[in-house]
Amino acid sequence: MADTIQSILKKFRQNNQSFLIPILQSVQEKEGFISKAATERISEHLRLSKSHIYGVASFYSQFKFNPPGRHSIKMCLGTACHVQGGDFLLHALEAEIGIIPGETSEDGKFDLDRVACLGCCALAPVLMIDNTIHSRMSVIKLKETLETYD
Ligand code: FES
Q: Which of 6, 39, 47, 122 lies 20 to 30 Å from 147, alpha-carbon distance?
């Protein structure tokens, strides 16, 4: 992992803070998340505090701070899905897999995020697992759906 970070950092001049976002994007792309170790290395390279880096990175949903799970769940909480009980489903989902948005389950099976709209509002409430849309979700359907993933 350290070698990957080093090869990324080598492409960006030291102490130039305008490179923060491009560096974070490269790390996210190569490693799948922004680890503590990566944050420390970026901090040294750009002479920025770790809290500043964390503050910037956490502003953008594209950056993750946990390793991705084997399956990525995106729960839609856009208007259509919200009206159809998206929040309720999210709570059921959190209880079922034991994590909240932004986290990865301990067994590494699922990571969870909330999104604003998945573009299929007529099918609300909707969630996406990996690249599959699961439409007109209910708590019962949710349990059955999760069981099909290993
Ligand atoms: S609001 Fe959920 S798919 Fe559009």
A: 122
Split into its structural domains, the chain has a count of: 2
- Residue 83 forms part of a structural domain: yes
Residues 139 and 94 in one domain: yes
pLDDT tens-digit series, residues 96-105: 999 999 899 9
* 78 and 98 share one domain: yes
Report pTM: 0.79
Comparing CA positions, the residue from 59, 60, 71 lying closest to residue 108 is 71
Distance 74 CA to ligand 1 centre (A): 11
Distance CA 26, CA 32 (A): 9
* Same domain (yes/no): 45, 99: no
Q: Note whether residue 19 is domain-resident.
A: yes
- Tell me: the pLDDT tens digits for 69-100? 999 999 999 999 999 999 999 999 999 999 99
Arithmetic mean of pLDDT, 36-59? 96
Which residues have CB under 6 Å of ligand 1? 76, 78-81, 117-121, 124, 126
Choosing from 88, 121, 132 the residue with most ligand 1 atoms within 8 A of its CB, the one to mutate for a pocket test is: 121
Distance from the CA of 87 to the center of ligand 1, in angstroms?
12
Q: Where are the alpha helices (DSSP H) in 34-98?
A: 36-46, 50-59, 79-83, 86-97
Q: Give the pair of three-digit tokens for residue 132.
A: 């599959």
Going from the Cα of 36 to the center of ligand 1, the distance in angstroms, rounded, reads 33
Domain with 141 in it: 71-147
